[in-house]
Design brief:
Blueprint lengths: L6 H32 L4 H29 L1 H20 L4 H29 L4 H9 L1 H18 L4 H6 L2 H13 L6 H4 L4 H7 L3 H28 L6 H17 L1 H30 L4 H13 L2 H12 L4 H33 L7 H5 L6 H21 L1 H36 L1
Length: 433
């Protein structure tokens, strides 16, 4: 690598960019209800605003994957800085639904652009240690959500307005924008290794890559859908639903920080098997427990999902390097798209489950708007209390399927390695003879 490439500074700047991405999730989740009250927004409008970030992310990460080798990682990351800056400022000075809608869209596009450029950047900076460094990079996603929820919790207690809370994201935004503008960038690994564009696109049709895309649907849904919906699904089961998310993301930060020895001991496929198993156990506890056992579930679930996203991307980077930046970003885009679609489907399913637990012919609106403490309000809360765990139990099917799939992948990768190693052994024996 050329001496002009300051690897550690580029990695720090990448982590700051991902920190802004995750802070946008954590802080926005904490202030969305306050914005709804201030601007008289309906629950449907708030849901659309929140979902906009998930639409912008896959759009940007997929498009960014296709153009990163053309425009370069540096220009792409400076574009992300502009989108982040515009989105944050538009949020701070929002006047209603549409300004919040477009500000969230801009932040979602910026988040996807960060992912589109930084995943290939990290693999180019650390070509011999990809999965571990991707885990270290991606620890800043749960890390930012952890910090964001704490920022909202404490500043709200102090009476600090939501505009100032959102404005705190400008600090890491300006830092990563400044660093990226001053630093030189290496070429992507695909370019430096001499793999042509046509070879890269052919590699995307490798059946193994197709399988990883499908498995990414499941890992992303298990991790992100559950994380984003814990407060909705369990707030009527426990008074500490938001703290469950804080605990889960804290576990993820610690787990990703120590990814190196874990990945080296168990291999990426071994880690994925363990992750799916722990995630399934954690979801089972969420769906069948209450009280303090929910915190046990958050710990187990956090241990399970903490390696999912970076290890999936790391597996592709290590075993399908010819897919290049496009392959890495198709994985990320597919995962986020799956989450957005699954959220829409399960949101409708959740509503149907709540309705099913109300008296036949009951008006949901009447029950939802009933005065607090009234019989109708209590009945409505009980219906939601029963419906939430049902959504979690339905989602539990996904990591169970993943366990079987990852066991199959583990067996396949071991057999493939034996096949690859065998000719080398024969050649060595022939040479000795």
């Amino acid at each position: 690598m050329p001496a002009s490439i300051q690897r550690n500074k580029l990695f720090v700047a990448s982590c700051l960019g991902l920190l802004v991405t995750s802070l946008s999730f954590g802080i926005r989740a904490g202030v969305l209800s306050v914005q709804g009250t201030q601007f008289n927004l309906t629950a449907s409008q708030l849901g659309t605003i929140a979902a906009t970030a998930f639409w912008g992310f896959p759009l940007a990460v997929i498009i960014g994957g296709f153009i990163v080798d053309i425009v370069g990682m540096k220009k792409l990351l400076l574009m992300a800085f502009i989108f982040h800056l515009a989105g944050i400022l538009l949020t701070i000075f929002a006047t209603g639904y549409w300004t919040l809608f477009f500000s969230t869209l801009l932040i979602g596009i910026a988040n996807g652009t960060i992912e589109a450029a930084c995943n290939p950047l990290v693999t180019a900076l650390f070509p011999t240690n990809k999965t571990t460094k991707l885990n270290h990079f991606h620890l800043w996603f749960p890390g930012g959500i952890f910090l964001g929820t704490l920022i909202v919790f404490f500043l709200s207690k102090l009476g600090v307005n939501w505009q100032l809370q959102v404005g705190l994201m400008l600090i890491p935004t300006f830092l990563y924008g400044f660093l990226f503008s001053k630093l030189d960038f290496p070429p992507t690994e695909r370019v430096s290794s001499g793999v042509s564009t046509s070879q890269m696109y052919r590699a995307l049709f490798n059946p193994l890559f197709g399988l990883m895309i499908i498995l990414m649907f499941g890992t992303a849904i298990t991790e992100l859908f559950t994380g984003q919906w814990i407060d909705v699904l369990l707030k009527n089961v426990t008074d500490n639903a938001l703290l469950l998310l804080t605990l889960e993301t804290g576990i993820m930060v610690v787990g990703r920080a120590f990814a190196g020895p874990v990945v080296h001991k168990f291999s990426p496929t071994g880690v994925l098997i363990i992750s799916a198993t722990l995630a399934a156990i954690g979801l089972y506890i969420f769906g069948h427990s209450s009280g303090s056992m929910l915190f046990v579930g958050a710990i187990v679930f956090g241990m399970g999902v903490c390696y999912f996203w970076p290890t999936m991307i790391g597996f592709v980077a290590e075993n399908l390097p010819r897919t290049g930046a496009v392959g890495l970003n198709l994985m990320g885009g597919a995962g986020m798209l799956a989450v957005s679609l699954y959220t829409i489907i399960m949101g409708g399913y959740y509503d149907n489950q709540v309705v099913a637990k109300l008296p036949v012919g009951a008006s949901v609106t009447d029950y939802a708007t009933a005065p607090a403490g009234s019989q109708m309000a209590n009945f409505y809360n009980e219906a939601k209390k029963l419906a939430g765990p049902q959504i979690i139990n339905a989602t539990l099917i996904i990591p169970i399927i993943l366990i079987a799939a990852f066991i199959g992948l583990f067996i396949y990768m071991r057999s493939r390695k034996k096949t690859v190693l065998q000719p080398t052994t024969v050649a060595a024996e022939s040479y000795q003879l």
